[in-house]
Amino acid sequence: MFFLSPFELKGDIDSVFERDPAARSILEVLLCYPGLHALILHRFAHRLYLARIPLIPRLISHGTRFITGIEIHPGAKIGKKFFIDHGMGSVIGETTEIGDNVTMYQGVTLGGTGKHSGKRHPTLGDNVVVGANATILGPVHIGAGSRIGAGSVVVRDVPHDSTIVGVPGRVVRHKGEKTYDVSLEHGKLFDPIESLNAKLEQKMAHLENRVAELEKEKRRSA
User: How many domains does the chain have?
Assistant: First the structure.
Protein backbone atom coordinates (compact mmCIF):
# COMPACT_ATOMS: atom_id res chain seq x y z
CA MET A 1 0.00 0.00 0.00
CA PHE A 2 2.66 2.50 1.03
CA PHE A 3 5.57 1.36 -1.14
CA LEU A 4 6.15 1.95 -4.85
CA SER A 5 4.84 -0.59 -7.29
CA PRO A 6 7.36 -2.09 -9.75
CA PHE A 7 5.60 -0.22 -12.55
CA GLU A 8 6.04 3.14 -10.79
CA LEU A 9 9.71 2.47 -10.13
CA LYS A 10 10.28 1.35 -13.71
CA GLY A 11 8.63 4.52 -15.02
CA ASP A 12 10.82 6.73 -12.83
CA ILE A 13 13.97 4.86 -13.92
CA ASP A 14 12.93 4.99 -17.58
CA SER A 15 12.55 8.78 -17.32
CA VAL A 16 16.23 9.04 -16.36
CA PHE A 17 17.39 7.08 -19.41
CA GLU A 18 15.04 9.04 -21.68
CA ARG A 19 16.34 12.45 -20.58
CA ASP A 20 19.92 12.02 -19.39
CA PRO A 21 22.47 10.73 -21.94
CA ALA A 22 24.98 10.29 -19.08
CA ALA A 23 22.95 7.40 -17.61
CA ARG A 24 24.80 4.14 -18.31
CA SER A 25 23.07 1.37 -16.38
CA ILE A 26 20.13 0.68 -14.09
CA LEU A 27 22.52 0.05 -11.19
CA GLU A 28 24.21 3.41 -11.75
CA VAL A 29 20.85 5.18 -11.86
CA LEU A 30 19.65 3.48 -8.67
CA LEU A 31 22.85 4.29 -6.78
CA CYS A 32 24.00 7.64 -8.17
CA TYR A 33 20.96 9.76 -9.02
CA PRO A 34 19.81 11.90 -6.05
CA GLY A 35 16.77 13.08 -8.00
CA LEU A 36 15.53 9.50 -8.22
CA HIS A 37 16.30 8.91 -4.53
CA ALA A 38 14.31 12.02 -3.57
CA LEU A 39 11.39 10.97 -5.76
CA ILE A 40 11.22 7.41 -4.41
CA LEU A 41 11.30 8.64 -0.82
CA HIS A 42 8.72 11.31 -1.60
CA ARG A 43 6.29 8.82 -3.10
CA PHE A 44 6.52 6.78 0.10
CA ALA A 45 6.14 9.87 2.32
CA HIS A 46 3.21 11.11 0.22
CA ARG A 47 1.31 7.87 0.79
CA LEU A 48 1.83 8.22 4.53
CA TYR A 49 0.73 11.86 4.31
CA LEU A 50 -2.50 10.89 2.53
CA ALA A 51 -3.11 8.26 5.22
CA ARG A 52 -2.88 11.12 7.77
CA ILE A 53 0.01 9.50 9.61
CA PRO A 54 1.53 12.30 11.72
CA LEU A 55 5.15 13.48 11.77
CA ILE A 56 6.74 10.53 9.92
CA PRO A 57 6.14 11.96 6.41
CA ARG A 58 7.83 15.22 7.42
CA LEU A 59 10.74 13.33 8.97
CA ILE A 60 11.20 11.41 5.72
CA SER A 61 11.12 14.69 3.78
CA HIS A 62 13.63 16.24 6.17
CA GLY A 63 15.96 13.25 5.90
CA THR A 64 15.66 13.29 2.11
CA ARG A 65 16.74 16.93 2.02
CA PHE A 66 19.78 16.07 4.15
CA ILE A 67 20.76 13.16 1.88
CA THR A 68 19.97 14.61 -1.56
CA GLY A 69 19.78 18.40 -1.18
CA ILE A 70 16.24 18.26 -2.58
CA GLU A 71 13.29 19.32 -0.42
CA ILE A 72 9.85 17.99 -1.36
CA HIS A 73 6.97 18.48 1.03
CA PRO A 74 5.11 15.17 1.49
CA GLY A 75 1.86 16.88 0.52
CA ALA A 76 3.06 17.68 -3.01
CA LYS A 77 1.33 15.71 -5.78
CA ILE A 78 3.74 14.39 -8.42
CA GLY A 79 2.77 12.53 -11.58
CA LYS A 80 4.45 9.77 -13.55
CA LYS A 81 8.00 9.92 -14.94
CA PHE A 82 9.06 13.03 -13.04
CA PHE A 83 12.77 13.66 -13.63
CA ILE A 84 14.91 15.86 -11.38
CA ASP A 85 18.29 16.40 -13.04
CA HIS A 86 21.03 17.12 -10.45
CA GLY A 87 18.42 18.71 -8.17
CA MET A 88 20.64 20.27 -5.50
CA GLY A 89 18.88 23.19 -3.81
CA SER A 90 15.45 22.46 -5.29
CA VAL A 91 12.31 23.08 -3.21
CA ILE A 92 8.78 21.82 -3.92
CA GLY A 93 6.05 23.16 -1.64
CA GLU A 94 3.12 21.44 0.04
CA THR A 95 0.29 22.22 -2.41
CA THR A 96 2.38 21.87 -5.57
CA GLU A 97 0.87 19.68 -8.29
CA ILE A 98 3.11 18.25 -11.01
CA GLY A 99 1.83 16.43 -14.09
CA ASP A 100 3.37 13.55 -16.03
CA ASN A 101 6.73 13.61 -17.84
CA VAL A 102 7.91 16.82 -16.16
CA THR A 103 11.63 17.67 -16.07
CA MET A 104 13.18 19.93 -13.43
CA TYR A 105 16.79 21.01 -13.05
CA GLN A 106 18.81 22.08 -10.00
CA GLY A 107 18.02 25.08 -7.83
CA VAL A 108 14.34 25.29 -8.78
CA THR A 109 11.82 26.70 -6.31
CA LEU A 110 8.13 25.85 -6.59
CA GLY A 111 7.12 28.08 -3.72
CA GLY A 112 4.09 29.58 -2.06
CA THR A 113 3.06 33.15 -1.38
CA GLY A 114 1.35 34.49 1.71
CA LYS A 115 0.40 32.73 4.92
CA HIS A 116 -3.07 31.55 3.95
CA SER A 117 -3.93 27.87 3.94
CA GLY A 118 -5.22 26.05 0.89
CA LYS A 119 -3.76 26.11 -2.60
CA ARG A 120 -0.71 28.41 -2.56
CA HIS A 121 1.89 26.64 -4.72
CA PRO A 122 2.22 26.15 -8.49
CA THR A 123 0.57 23.58 -10.73
CA LEU A 124 2.67 22.22 -13.60
CA GLY A 125 0.97 20.52 -16.53
CA ASP A 126 2.29 17.50 -18.41
CA ASN A 127 5.61 17.66 -20.28
CA VAL A 128 6.78 20.89 -18.64
CA VAL A 129 10.52 21.65 -18.40
CA VAL A 130 11.80 23.96 -15.65
CA GLY A 131 15.35 25.25 -16.13
CA ALA A 132 18.05 25.59 -13.48
CA ASN A 133 17.48 28.16 -10.71
CA ALA A 134 14.03 29.10 -11.99
CA THR A 135 11.49 30.28 -9.42
CA ILE A 136 7.73 29.77 -9.75
CA LEU A 137 5.70 31.36 -6.96
CA GLY A 138 2.08 31.19 -5.89
CA PRO A 139 -0.92 29.17 -7.12
CA VAL A 140 -0.08 29.79 -10.78
CA HIS A 141 -0.70 27.28 -13.56
CA ILE A 142 2.04 26.34 -16.02
CA GLY A 143 0.39 24.98 -19.15
CA ALA A 144 1.28 21.60 -20.60
CA GLY A 145 4.34 21.50 -22.83
CA SER A 146 5.74 24.80 -21.58
CA ARG A 147 9.41 25.60 -20.96
CA ILE A 148 10.64 27.83 -18.14
CA GLY A 149 14.08 29.27 -18.89
CA ALA A 150 16.97 29.05 -16.43
CA GLY A 151 16.88 31.78 -13.79
CA SER A 152 13.37 32.96 -14.69
CA VAL A 153 10.89 34.16 -12.07
CA VAL A 154 7.26 33.27 -12.82
CA VAL A 155 4.38 34.74 -10.81
CA ARG A 156 1.57 34.53 -13.39
CA ASP A 157 -0.19 31.77 -15.30
CA VAL A 158 1.60 30.47 -18.40
CA PRO A 159 -0.33 29.28 -21.49
CA HIS A 160 0.33 25.78 -22.76
CA ASP A 161 3.19 25.24 -25.23
CA SER A 162 4.93 28.46 -24.20
CA THR A 163 8.52 29.41 -23.44
CA ILE A 164 9.14 31.80 -20.54
CA VAL A 165 12.38 33.65 -19.79
CA GLY A 166 13.52 36.64 -17.76
CA VAL A 167 12.75 38.39 -14.48
CA PRO A 168 9.84 38.72 -14.32
CA GLY A 169 9.14 35.86 -16.70
CA ARG A 170 7.78 36.79 -20.12
CA VAL A 171 6.45 34.63 -22.93
CA VAL A 172 8.99 34.53 -25.79
CA ARG A 173 7.35 31.71 -27.72
CA HIS A 174 3.78 30.42 -27.80
CA LYS A 175 2.53 27.43 -29.81
CA GLY A 176 5.71 27.47 -31.86
CA GLU A 177 5.45 31.18 -32.74
CA LYS A 178 8.04 33.62 -31.41
CA THR A 179 6.66 36.55 -29.45
CA TYR A 180 10.21 37.94 -29.24
CA ASP A 181 13.01 37.42 -31.75
CA VAL A 182 15.21 35.28 -29.55
CA SER A 183 17.19 32.07 -29.76
CA LEU A 184 16.26 29.43 -27.21
CA GLU A 185 19.87 28.56 -26.44
CA HIS A 186 20.61 29.14 -22.75
CA GLY A 187 23.29 31.72 -23.58
CA LYS A 188 20.94 33.66 -25.84
CA LEU A 189 17.70 33.75 -23.87
CA PHE A 190 15.74 36.98 -23.95
CA ASP A 191 16.76 39.43 -21.22
CA PRO A 192 14.11 42.14 -20.68
CA ILE A 193 16.55 44.33 -18.72
CA GLU A 194 19.13 44.21 -21.50
CA SER A 195 16.39 44.97 -24.03
CA LEU A 196 15.23 47.99 -22.00
CA ASN A 197 18.81 49.27 -21.67
CA ALA A 198 19.30 48.96 -25.43
CA LYS A 199 16.16 51.03 -26.07
CA LEU A 200 17.31 53.69 -23.58
CA GLU A 201 20.72 53.85 -25.27
CA GLN A 202 19.04 54.36 -28.64
CA LYS A 203 16.90 57.18 -27.25
CA MET A 204 19.92 58.81 -25.60
CA ALA A 205 21.86 58.66 -28.87
CA HIS A 206 18.90 60.22 -30.70
CA LEU A 207 18.64 63.03 -28.12
CA GLU A 208 22.39 63.70 -28.26
CA ASN A 209 22.25 63.97 -32.05
CA ARG A 210 19.26 66.29 -31.81
CA VAL A 211 21.04 68.53 -29.26
CA ALA A 212 24.11 68.68 -31.51
CA GLU A 213 21.92 69.74 -34.46
CA LEU A 214 20.24 72.46 -32.40
CA GLU A 215 23.62 73.79 -31.25
CA LYS A 216 24.81 73.98 -34.88
CA GLU A 217 21.64 75.86 -35.87
CA LYS A 218 22.13 78.25 -32.95
CA ARG A 219 25.73 78.99 -33.97
CA ARG A 220 24.72 79.61 -37.59
CA SER A 221 21.98 82.03 -36.58
CA ALA A 222 24.22 83.91 -34.11
Answer: 2
- The pLDDT, as a whole number, for residue 74 is 96
Phi, psi of 27 (to 5 degrees): -60, -45
Whether residues 42 and 72 share a domain: the answer is yes
- pTM attached to this predicted model: 0.76
Query: Rounded CA gap, 190 and 127, in Å?
Result: 22
Neighbours of 22 (CB within 10 A): 9
Sheet holding 77-78: strands in order across?
77-78, 97-98, 123-124, 141-142
pLDDT band at residue 144, thresholds of 50, 70 and 90?
Answer: very high
Classify residue 58: in a domain, yes or no: yes
Q: Which residues of 68-81 are buried (b: 16+ CB within 10 A; e: fewer)?
A: bbbbbbbbbebebb
Task: Examine the domain organization and report whether 136 and 195 are in the same domain.
Answer: no
- Does residue 195 share a domain with residue 115? no
- What pLDDT was estimated at residue 14? 93
Q: CA 189, 190, 194: angle at the middle one, nearest 5?
A: 120
What is the percent of the chain with per-residue pLDDT over 70, rounded to a whole number?
89
